[in-house]
């Protein structure tokens, strides 16, 4: 089938390797001419080590050309740009086309998750999401990986599974897109706090304490937003939390470690200026959402106060020991 990937970041590029392995026709879209030229002329990207663009992949900055005749459109762009991209493609997308969300997060101003952001701009029920423990570099290496795939549409679930599933890429289906999106967003926040704990010099035993306590909070949030708390035990839930909260491959984890180790404001700003820390944007949005809906999530409140209000990092340890 023809599959379009919107976004040429590390994860979108890595997903192209899976799609090509499955003999799909792949088109990639970027809004940036320089990125398009880098990929077409060098076959490489500075965003992901050891990546080589497969022959036959089309790269374009024309969104009409990108999505034309595609059976599946994969959203792999930062959350902040999803609304604008959906506005651009809404006049070209056809009712028969399916959408797969590979991005994670929540919109700053509206506090909408990505599936709702898409539905606000495009009239379709053919929306799915993939989420789970998978770093881009590992997808490129084609090691065995498992993700959750969620959609209310059985047809969309099948289309996404057909496009991606193979002997190294396992997809477990669910209808709980709310739970999958909540887990995918919040795990980045928990990863920041887990990095803080290592930065403070505590061992992995203390990180395990944090992760366990956080699972209870995420369960409360999933229920409050209408999802199924059993999703917490899926690839999208515990699987992704375990990976992101214990690995220095995670940008969110490394950001938290900087804070925990007592880095200066200047050092932290230098890091965030060079590297996108999705968990920072998600933290602002989730904090706003839980306060708006009056959902009590202590872990989120404490992490927010440490990151944005310069509260003592020791509050996190104090809370864990209550």
Q: What are the key terms here?
A:
322 residues, N-(1-d-carboxylethyl)-l-norvaline Dehydrogenase, domain 2, Rossmann fold, globular, 8 strands, alpha/beta, 15 helices, 52% helix, 2 domains, single chain, eight-stranded mixed sheet
Descriptive account of the structure:
This protein folds into two domains: 2-175, NAD(P)-binding Rossmann-like Domain (Rossmann fold, 3-Layer(aba) Sandwich); 178-320, Orthogonal Bundle (N-(1-d-carboxylethyl)-l-norvaline Dehydrogenase, domain 2). It is α/β, with parallel strands linked by helices and 322 residues long. An eight-stranded mixed β-sheet has the order 3-2-1-4-5-6-7-8, with helices on both faces. The protein has helices at 10-21, 33-42, 63-67, 82-89, 114-121, 136-140, 154-164, 177-199, 204-224, 235-244, 251-260, 265-274, 278-292, 298-308, 314-320, and strands at residues 2-6, 25-29, 58-60, 72-75, 98-101, 127-131, 145-151, 169-174.
Strand residue content: 5-15%
Could you spell the SSE succession in H and E letters? EHEHEHEHEHEHEHEHHHHHHHH
Spatial order of the strands forming the largest sheet: 3-2-1-4-5-6-7-8
How many distinct beta strands? Answer: 8
CATH superfamily of the largest domain: NAD(P)-binding Rossmann-like Domain
Question: Structural class of the secondary structure composition?
Answer: alpha/beta
> Which value, in Å, is the CA radius of gyration?
19 Å
Distance between the termini: 54 Å
In the CATH scheme, the class of the largest domain would be Alpha Beta
Low-confidence stretches: none
Helix content: 40-55%
**Morphology call:** globular
The helix count comes to 15
Biggest beta-sheet profile: 8 strands, mixed
Q: How many independent structural domains?
A: 2
Instruction: Please identify, by name, the CATH architecture of the largest domain.
Output: 3-Layer(aba) Sandwich
CATH T-level topology of the largest domain = Rossmann fold
* Overall pLDDT: 95
């Amino acid at each position: 089938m023809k599959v379009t990937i919107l976004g040429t970041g590390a994860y979108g590029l890595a997903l192209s390797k899976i799609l090509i392995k499955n003999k799909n026709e792949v088109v990639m879209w970027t809004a940036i001419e320089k990125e398009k030229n880098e990929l077409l002329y060098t076959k490489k990207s500075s965003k992901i080590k050891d990546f080589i663009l497969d022959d036959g992949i089309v790269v374009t900055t024309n969104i009409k050309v990108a999505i034309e005749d595609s059976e599946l459109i994969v959203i792999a762009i930062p959350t902040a740009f999803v609304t604008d991209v959906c506005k651009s493609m809404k006049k070209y997308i056809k009712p028969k086309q399916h959408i797969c969300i590979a991005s994670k997060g929540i919109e700053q101003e509206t506090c909408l998750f990505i599936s709702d952001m898409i539905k606000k701009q495009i009239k379709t029920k053919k929306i799915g999401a993939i989420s789970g423990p998978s770093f881009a570099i590992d997808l490129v290496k084609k090691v065995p990986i498992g993700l959750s795939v969620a959609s209310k549409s059985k047809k969309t679930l099948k289309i996404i599974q057909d496009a991606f599933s193979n002997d190294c890429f396992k997809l477990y289906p669910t209808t709980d897109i709310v739970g999958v999106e909540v887990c995918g967003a919040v795990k980045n926040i928990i990863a920041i706090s887990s990095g803080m704990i290592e930065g403070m010099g505590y061992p992995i035993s203390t990180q395990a304490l944090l992760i366990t306590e956080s699972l209870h909070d995420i369960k409360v949030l999933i229920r409050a937003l209408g999802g199924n708390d059993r999703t917490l035990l899926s690839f999208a839930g515990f699987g992704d939390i375990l990976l992101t909260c214990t690995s220095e491959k995670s940008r969110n984890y490394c950001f938290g470690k900087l804070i925990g180790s007592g880095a200066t404001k200047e050092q932290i700003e230098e890091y965030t200026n060079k590297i996108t820390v999705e968990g920072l944007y998600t933290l602002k949005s989730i904090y706003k959402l839980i306060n708006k809906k009056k959902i009590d999530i202590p872990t989120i409140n404490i992490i927010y106060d440490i990151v944005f209000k310069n509260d003592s990092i020791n509050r996190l340890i104090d809370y864990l020991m209550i």
